Amino acid sequence: MAHTTSFSTWAFALSLCFSVSECYFSIPLKIYTGKYNLSSDVDLTPLRRVALTSDANGLSLASDPTGTVSFLDMVNNLEGDSGRGYYIELSIGTPGQKLNILVDTGSSNFAVAAAPHPFITHYFNTELSSTYESVGRTVAVRYTQGNWEGELGIDRVSIPKGPNGTIITNIAAILSSDSFFLPGINWQGILGLAYPMLARPDMSVEPFFNSLVQQMGIPDIFSLQMCGAGLSASSTADPAGGSLIMGGVEPTLYRGSVWYTPIVEEWYYQVEILKLEVGDQNLELDCREYNMDKAIVDSGTTLLRLPVNVFNAVVEAIKHSSLIQDFSSGFWDGTKLACWMKGETPWKFFPKLSIYLRATNNSQSFRITILPQLYIQLIADVDGTLDCFRFGVSSSANGLVIGATVMEGFYVMFDRAQQRLGFALSSCAVSGEVALSEIAGPFSAADVASNCSGGTVKEPFMWVIAYSLMAVCALVLIILFLLLVLPCRSRDSSGEITDESSLVRHRIK
Predict the structure, then answer these.
(1) Is 104 a catalytic residue?
(2) What contacts 256, CB < 8 A, 6 or more positions away?
(3) E strand segments, 82-188
C-alpha cells in the first residue's frame, strides 16, 4: 500500500523564495453501473495445491539452519484475497490480544486499531496490556487509499504461525482514520514490511521485520504466496489465503526455477522494468516510462497500477488484440463491471500481459506473464444469472505498482540480505488444470537502456530537497527582516526606541 507523493511542499518552498470491431459470441454483454462491495460473509475456494520439487539454490530450505524457524509451520498462515487484502494473525501485548493484520510490502509502519471503528470487530486496547508503553510521539500515514493518525508505542508481539518467540517492537496505535478501514474487511491493522526509509514519522522508527531479524536472529528474507488467483469474491467456499514465510523460502510453495531481479533502492521494494507486452505485442515505449517515477512490488495494492501513458497504451493494445472492442470506457477506468451470462467466461477473448524485469545479470532480463484470469477478475453475480468482472489494471499518478493482480500468480521472495527479489511460479496459481501465470528467460537486455530507472527523484530525497529549500528561504527572510528592522532602530534624543521603529504593531492577531 504505497504512500502518495505530493509536490505541494515544493510549491510552498519556491513560493517562500520567489513569492476486434464486433463480438464473436452470442451471449449478452452488458455493463453493471452500480457500486459493488465485497462482503465479509462470502468465502473463497482454495485452489488445488500440487507437490513440487525444490530448485538447487541455497535459499530453498525446509527450515532455517539456526532452528529458530520451521517454514512448514508458516504455510497457510494468511487469510484473505486480493480485493480485501491478505492478513496474518498476531498476538499483541500482555496478555496477548489477537488481531488480524494486513500484510503490506508497500509501507513500513506496524499499526493497529486502538479505538472502535464501525468497520472493524475489535481493536487493540492499550490499557489492557501491562507491557504497552507510549513513547509520546504522534504519527500519521497516508496511503494511495486512506490514511490514519495515532500515537507511537512499544509492546510485545508474537506470531502464532510464525517464528517461535516474542519480540518487542514499535507499534502505532491508530486513534482516527479516513477511508483506511473499509466495509467487508477482516483485519484490524497493517504490517508494513518495507524498509526504514518509509517509516513515519521518520526512519528512526524500526519496522517490524527489522526487529524480528535483529531479536530472533533469523535470515533477512521473507517470501509471500497469495492464493486468490482466479477466484471469485462471490464464491461460497473456504477463503483463499496464502503464506508469509519469515526467514526464508518454502520450496513446496513454488515450482520451477527462481528468477531474481535487483532491488534498485531500499525504501519501497523498487525494481527495474524493461518493457511490457500485451499478447505478443511490445508496447515499444521508452523503458523509463515504465519506471516513472518508480516501479515497486506492493502486496497492499490490489491492482496492477501503471503510469498514465503506459496504462493508455496497454488499454489500446488490449482493445486491438481482444475480440471485444466495444466496451464502455467505464470498464477500463474501473467504474463499471462487464457481465456475461452465468457460466460463460470472457478470459479466452483477452490477451496475456507480460512484464520484463532486469535480471541480476544486468545484460539479461526475464519475463513474468499473467493470464486474463488474473486481470479480468470475477467479482460478483447479478440476480443469479450474470457473472460480472472488473478490469484488474488501473492508471497511477505515482509510479508502477505490481500489486496482488500480478503477485497472485507468483511466489515472491524478498531477499533483503542480497538486495534482490525472486519470482517463481506459485503452486496455487492454478485453476483446474490451467496454470494462470508463466515465467521465462533469460532474454538479452542489450537493446534496452542500461538504467531504465535513472533520473527519477525518490520521494524521501524530494522531501530532503524541499526542506532544504525551505531552510534557505527562511534564512533569506530572516536576513531581509533584519535589514528592514536594524536601520529603523534609530533612537530619539532620549535614547529610547521609538514606536515608529517597532514592527510589533503590525502583527497579524
Answers:
(1) yes
(2) 55, 424, 425, 439
(3) 85-92, 97-104, 110-113, 133-142, 147-158, 166-178
> Could you tell me which of 431, 439, 76, 57 has the C-alpha nearest to residue 224?
76
Q: Are 122 and 100 in contact (CB under 8 A)?
A: no
pTM score: 0.79
| Residue from 104, 155, 293, 387 carrying the catalytic annotation | 104
Instruction: Determine the Cα–Cα distance for residues 324 and 23; give it in Å rounded to an integer.
Output: 5
Active-site residue flag, 298: yes
Per-residue pLDDT tens for 354-407? 999 999 999 999 999 999 999 999 888 788 889 999 999 999 999 999 999 999
The gap between the terminal CA atoms of the chain, to the nearest Å, is: 42
Cis before residue 118, ω within 30 degrees of 0? no
Q: How far apart are CA 17 and CA 58, in angstroms?
A: 55
What is the C-alpha separation between 21 and 32, in angstroms, rounded?
21
Q: Is 265 exposed, middle or buried, given 0-12, 13-18 or 19+ CB atoms closer than 10 A?
A: buried
28, three cell numbers: 449478452
Name the catalytic one among 293, 298, 387, 415: 298
